[in-house]
């Protein structure tokens, strides 16, 4: 495994662990119920995953257009 990736992953887990507020989570679960909270978290996760799909949907046509445009560029001297 790449050490940079492992270090970044460890730092992100450390950040989440330090900034996770158990009392706010408890209040949210108490107000929404456990099933409501699970659905809320699932919605957040789906929204985050949607970002990648949008990037993919826009990135592939842009990359294809760039590749085609490069075929018609004047050769460098």
Strand and helix layout:
Layout: H1 3-19, H2 22-32, H3 34-71
Helix pairs in contact: 2-3
Q: How many DSSP helices? A: 3
Shape: elongated
Distance N terminus to C terminus? 42 Å
Question: What's the helix-strand series?
Answer: HHH
Spans with pLDDT under 50 lasting ≥5 residues?
Answer: none
Approximate strand percentage = under 5%
* Main sheet attributes: strand count, strand direction, barrel closure: none
Give the tally of β-strands. Answer: 0
The helicity comes to: over 70%
Mean pLDDT: 81
Secondary-structure class: mainly alpha
The radius of gyration is: 22 Å
Keywords:
single chain, 77 residues, mainly alpha, 3 helices, elongated
3D structure, described in words:
The chain has 77 residues and is mainly alpha-helical. The chain contains 3 helices and no strands. The protein has helices spanning 3-19, 22-32, 34-71. The two termini are 42 Å apart. The mean pLDDT is 81.
Care to give the gist of this entry?
By secondary structure, the chain is mainly α. The chain has helices spanning 3-19, 22-32, 34-71.
């Amino acid at each position: 495994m790449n050490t940079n990736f492992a270090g970044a992953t460890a730092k992100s887990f450390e950040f989440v662990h330090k900034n996770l507020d158990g009392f706010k989570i408890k209040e949210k679960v108490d107000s929404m119920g456990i099933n409501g909270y699970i659905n809320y978290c699932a919605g957040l996760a789906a929204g985050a995953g949607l970002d990648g799909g949008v990037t993919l949907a826009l990135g592939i046509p842009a990359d294809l257009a760039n590749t085609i445009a490069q075929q018609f560029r004047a050769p460098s001297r």
